[in-house]
């Protein structure tokens, strides 16, 4: 058993839309090797049954910050800001006087904007990604408990925010050769620089049909490098004593490997599509799926990332196309692993490694070819909802593997308890501290996953147990035996032989939903 220590620093590394089985510490058969990320697992604990509580960016990131379910904190889908004044675990760390709080990269507690013009009246955001909205950027400090931050918004080549553009300008000033492939001129406006970055690929390239974009952004100007360099610079400044507080909590937040698939430079062709192993469920014809999933397979429903004209109908996705998409994702993930290696080396170099807790996770997974689906949406397969979670705590037993059910909502309580701070009664998760002391410990009997999909006017609630997943939609449902059918090929919802199990899980799901509601029973007077 290790002791709670208020003297630890925290480095919280988070990616966007990454499957657990895209890390080699989770998948022995993958051609992508991630030795630097794997080292966090070797030095600490790897969780094999860790889930997001919503498979969309903004809702689950808000859950990580608040320790509350989306239906409680109010960010139930993308495009909805976390309300100003919402208290986060970072507020507690910062206000204690012991922790300096910082974030470098994507935050996404405010929306990025609407490049399509579909939403014509964005109200306010601190994270706009398009230059047309920069005059309306808010500038709250602290920002949901963060005292320092450098923001990059968007994904792939479509990144923006003044912090990113100013960094690009600084890099080009130091090395003018970086401007050449983008045809950026010395007196180019900020808006023109962003346009050159965003449209840095050949729009006639047929790979664009599957959102694989070969572009001209040098590795030195890519989003992963932005996050890496700002994180390392912060660690150096902290080690040099430039901050008055004794400890830090720092987010290192990569926008990749979220689509589009845009690995820069040498990473673009690092992995051959023909070497990619497709998911076992790729050839599922959905005969035993829900009617909703059958419709997506046959028609391609609009959801987060999927839309006709920018990706094929699932049943028409060819094996070669799927392999090319996954190879592109591998390139982005390999660049992240290289960056993580440099960041971890900096912890050692600056004498911070021995008292820094390192966490690695993602905000949600990626369908990644499961059942011929890609990206995300109300298709609650394991690749989308099961995510990596690695934690290395100084002086903790190394190389442990935990199969306990845990989820994103448990993260902030764990951090607060590791620091010795009381947990607010507004938080709805459970601390992982019992597991960190005993890897066989269980803290959850089940995991609740909420998702509201505005594209299809669909609401889903899922309950995950060790052996089962049940998902309730407005007009249909899914029931999968994860023990006997880990690839979720056979939906048992309408199989009467499993009515008793279905009813048991439905009752448990109902109780969980009732107990997460964000209001108590109150009256204004006696009667």
Low-confidence stretches: none
Strand content: 5-15%
What is the CATH third-level topology name of the domain at 28-62 and 79-399? Alkaline Phosphatase, subunit A
Report the top-level CATH class of the domain at 28-62 and 79-399.
Alpha Beta
**In percent, how helical is the residue content?**
25-40%
Structure class: alpha/beta
Write the H/E string, N to C.
EHEEHHHEEEEHHHEHHEHEEEHHEEEEH
Distance between the termini: 53 Å
Number of helices: 13
Spatial extent as radius of gyration: 22 Å
CATH homologous superfamily classification of the domain at 28-62 and 79-399 = Alkaline Phosphatase, subunit A
User: What's the β-strand tally?
Assistant: 16
**Major beta sheet summary:** 8 strands, mixed
| Neighbour order of strands in the largest sheet | 5-4-8-1-9-10-2-11
Mean pLDDT: 94
Based on CA inertia axes, which overall geometry fits? Answer: globular
Question: What's the gist of this structure?
Answer:
This protein is an alpha/beta fold and 527 residues long.
Structure characterization notes:
The protein is of the alpha/beta class. It has a domain at about 30-60 and about 80-400: Alkaline Phosphatase, subunit A (3-Layer(aba) Sandwich). The chain is about 25% helix and about 15% strand. Strands 5-4-8-1-9-10-2-11 form an 8-stranded mixed β-sheet, sandwiched between helices. A hairpin with a 2-residue loop joins β6 (about 155) and β7 (about 160). α7 (about 225-240) packs parallel to α9 (about 320-350). The longest helix is centred in the middle third of the chain and has 31 residues, at about 320-350. The model has no long low-confidence stretch (mean pLDDT about 95).
